[in-house]
Specification:
Number of domains: 1
Helix content: 25-40%
Number of strands: 3
Mean pLDDT: 83
Structural class: alpha+beta
CATH topology: Arc Repressor Mutant, subunit A
Low-confidence stretches: 8-12
Order of helices and strands: EHHEEHH
């Protein structure tokens, strides 16, 4: 017995491993060890990680973006933090 062929070719299929991991606000805040309120404030000021606004009340953060944003803030001295924020 043959299995039915999927309508998409092998080149058109999307790997499950390639799909981005999306986190809601509470999950993203826990991942960064901050409060959800901090993420809300950063969205207003533009200081936080980039996010997806799927609807007016549906915000998602890519895990890869959370990691990139956090790694960009690694500092060795206090002076590095103040100059990086300018």
């Amino acid at each position: 017995m043959r299995t039915p062929r999927h309508p998409m070719s092998a080149a058109e299929t999307i790997s499950v491993n390639a799909a981005p991991v999306l986190r809601n606000e509470v999950q993203a805040a826990a991942f960064l060890c901050v409060s959800p309120r901090a993420l809300q404030k950063w969205r207003v000021t533009g200081d936080g990680p980039q996010y997806l606004r799927l609807s007016a009340r549906c915000i998602r953060y890519s895990q890869a973006e959370l990691i990139r944003w956090a790694e960009a803030r690694i500092c060795r001295a206090t002076a590095e933090y103040s100059s990086a924020r300018r």
